[in-house]
């Protein structure tokens, strides 16, 4: 299914605060629930405007950190934006002592309502998943589910 950026004036008004955050910070974080409220998600909008993939994480994956998933995501975005060569699927990155792995998640674009309204389906999405103890150890985490 192909989605186009939203041109509805009412939706554009809803997107206005997110656009302001993107204009100020270069990105914004959205905290949302998946379909049926079964899982909580945190995802970015604004990375597409820098030619980079958007990021998504399950809130429970980093709930044990002092400031949780939103703070980890914000710190990760700042770090990734500083990379001159960008970032890609399969890469690992360290954020204040926590290792994460990025994995391609094209199926989950419909879950990112704000990014979908801004960019249509023409953006890339990478899931931020925890690593066990370091960059070489994969922690078997749950993928984001659509139901």
Walkthrough of the structure:
This protein has 147 residues and is α+β, with helices and mostly antiparallel strands. It has one domain. Helices cover 26% and strands 23% of the residues. The chain is built from three helices and six strands; from the N terminus they run H-E-E-E-H-E-E-H-E. The chain has helices at 9-25, 68-81, 113-119, and strands at 28-33, 40-45, 54-58, 92-95, 98-104, 125-130. It has a six-stranded mixed β-sheet, with helices on both faces. 31% of the residues are buried. The mean pLDDT is 85.
Pick out its properties.
single chain
Q: Short summary of the structure?
A:
The chain is α+β, with helices and mostly antiparallel strands and 147 residues long.
Question: Which class of secondary structure composition applies to the elements?
Answer: alpha+beta
What sort of overall outline do the alpha carbons produce when their principal axes are compared? Answer: globular
Q: Main beta sheet: strand number and arrangement? A: 6 strands, mixed
Unreliable stretches covering 5 or more consecutive residues: none
How far the N terminus sits from the C terminus, by CA atoms, comes to: 17 Å
Organism: Paeniglutamicibacter gangotriensis
Protein name: DUF4262 domain-containing protein
Topology:
Layout: H1 9-25, E1 28-33, E2 40-45, E3 54-58, H2 68-81, E4 92-95, E5 98-104, H3 113-119, E6 125-130
Parallel strand pairs: 3-6
Antiparallel strand pairs: 1-2, 2-3, 4-5, 5-6
